[in-house]
Amino acid sequence: MRKIILLAICFIGIRAMAQNNTDKKSRAIINHTAIYVVDLKKSGDFYQNIIGLDTVPEPFHDNAHIWLRTSPISTMHIILGAEKFKEYYKNQHTCFSVSEYDSFITKLRKANMSFEDVAGNKNAITTRIDGVHQIWLQDPDGYWLEINDAKF
Q1: Nearest 5 degrees, angle CA 43-CA 59-CA 33?
Q2: 125: left (phi > 0), else alpha (psi -120 to 50), else beta?
Q3: Taking 90 as the threshold, does the pLDDT of residue 12 lie above it?
Q4: Separation between Cα atoms, residue 30 and residue 54, nearest integer Å
Q5: 63-85 pLDDT, tens per residue?
Q6: Neighbour tally for 103: CB within 10 Å
Q7: Is the pLDDT of residue 17 over 80?
Q8: Measured between alpha carbons, how far is 50 from 48 in angstroms, rounded to an integer?
Q9: In the chain, what are the domains?
Q10: Among 4, 112, 135, 139, which one is most buried in terms of CB atoms within 10 A?
Q11: pTM of this structure
Q12: How far apart are alpha carbons 90 and 114 in whole angstroms?
């Protein structure tokens, strides 16, 4: 009887592990995000020179796209064609973590770029309950970005 119970427990454990592996294989991961912009050069310069993203080859070669590396496995596509600047909600944002947070803040100040804390106080920094520091700023088309010093 013990052997049967032990075999049943092993079978249940192996089945649970196999199910968990199958679930992991079918989970989605972010491949890319895309933003639609008024001025491709201005937005490209902002994301490359201020945020610090590197370009990656894009297949269109039509002067209407810039692709940037946002992580080892994901990209951002900047697409020309928006007709005008729009207002966006702050809670709909993209977040980037930086390893040299103080240097990033200094770079923003040298570039005369405004930023704010989560409450909207200008040139202020939020410290979350978990100790992560964060600021908020908008790109040239008004998209909100959070920049923080979270460690992964």
Answers
A1: 50
A2: beta
A3: no
A4: 18
A5: 999 999 999 999 999 999 999 99
A6: 10
A7: no
A8: 6
A9: 87-152 (3.10.180.10)
A10: 135
A11: 0.82
A12: 15
